[in-house]
Write a structure and sequence with these properties.
About 30% of the residues lie in helices and about 20% in strands. It has about 350 residues and is an alpha+beta fold. Strands 3-4-5-6-8-7 form a six-stranded antiparallel beta sheet. Helix 5 runs antiparallel to helix 6. Pfam families: Fructosamin_kin (PF03881).
């Protein structure tokens, strides 16, 4: 399938606010045209982080005492912290906290991530931080939702290619859709964008078409009308998707709905500093064609786009028939991620097909 590229005018960079104040988003790190050569910076630790009563009540072991809570890492859409506690038996335990103050939309984001981690952990324990609880703040002027999870110290990003792809393939192979269909039991969010996941479809073609059309609508709302782009979008939805995805489930072929992380890129993957094992986080899971997961790796902006990751994954989970259309499907799946980046990351130039 030939690639047609229509360059859109570059968007202007924006200033966002994270745990450590107002910062200029590093566009090359999140939505650039090539993979950064520098190492991914370690998560920053900041000053004290005020804990709402609801968070303290959600600590999983009664009688736990909070020693400290400090700002930790970065979230483009919320705040994150490391909580150090002392258990009733004297042992020390750490927790990770994420909060989002976007009203009812924050609830969708937090609950979706909690359910995503819960589903992945049930299949591959240790591959994600264990999610303990989620809820709503009891105080504060803003409507704020939180998720409390196991704390994992972030090391090398992305992780070792062999260890990482082995665990990812294990998740895809072992997972089993509760309905035997594609979808999920709840809405999950790519960044702060709600996905079409809260439905069940026998046809992967049908679900992916809904998802891509949904992302195209977000792009139109954020970046405005662009007639040439609209034409290519319509052709993709009506012609390309049926042509490439229908053969996966016709003429005697079938594909298994696999549980996917949903947004695997360099900084949603890491090596655990304590165990040396790979783990992933910031998930927006659902049951999909397993090849969808690595559509995000096609983008040159990711270190995961290197052949060493793609080839090692394919060794552990073979591609689907028709095999000779794998690259075309990979390009098609990458559109979903690139459009998401075009909507979410100010200053990137990814409105292309």
């Amino acid at each position: 399938m030939a690639t047609v590229v229509i360059e859109a005018p570059r968007l202007h960079s924006n200033v966002l606010k994270d745990n450590f104040g107002h910062v200029t988003l590093d566009v090359s790190r999140h939505g650039g045209d090539e993979a950064p050569v520098s190492l991914i910076p370690a998560p920053l630790r900041g000053g004290n982080f005020a804990l709402d009563e609801a968070v303290i009540d959600a600590l999983p072991i009664p009688g736990t005492k909070v020693i400290s809570a400090r700002k930790y890492g970065m979230s483009l859409w919320g705040k994150t912290a490391q909580i150090c506690t002392k258990l009733p038996d004297g042992r020390l335990e750490e927790y990770f906290l994420k909060t989002v103050s976007l009203g009812s939309h924050g609830r969708v984001m937090i609950e979706g991530e909690f359910e995503s981690l819960k589903a992945i952990h049930s299949v591959t324990p240790g591959f994600v931080p264990f999610p303990h609880a989620w809820g709503k703040y009891k105080s504060g002027a803003e409507e704020t939702y939180f998720m409390l999870a196991e704390f994992r110290e972030v090391g090398e990003q992305p992780p070792n290619h062999i260890k990482f792809t082995t665990r990812l393939a294990e998740l895809h192979k072992k997972s089993k859709s509760p309905t035997g269909k594609f979808g999920f039991h709840i809405t999950t969010c790519h960044g702060k964008l709600p996905q079409i996941t809260d439905c069940w479809e026998d046809s992967w073609e049908a679900l992916y078409k809904k998802q891509l059309a949904h992302m195209i609508n977000f792009d139109r709302e954020k970046n405005g009308e662009w007639p040439e782009f609209e034409l290519l979008c319509n052709l993709t939805l009506e012609r390309v998707i049926p042509r490439l995805l229908r053969p996966l489930q016709t003429n005697g072929r079938s594909i298994k709905p696999c549980l996917v992380h949903g947004d695997l890129w360099d900084e949603n993957t890491a090596t655990d500093m304590d165990t040396g094992r790979p783990f992933v986080f910031d998930s927006c899971a659902f049951y999909a064609h397993h090849e969808y997961e690595i559509g995000n790796w096609r983008a040159a902006r990711h270190r995961l786009s290197g052949d060493i990751y793609v080839k090692n994954y394919r060794r552990r989970f073979p591609i689907s028939e028709p095999e000779d259309e794998w690259d075309d499907r990979n390009l098609l799946y990458s559109l979903r991620y690139d459009l998401g980046a075009a909507v979410l990351i100010p200053g990137c130039n990814l409105r292309r097909m």
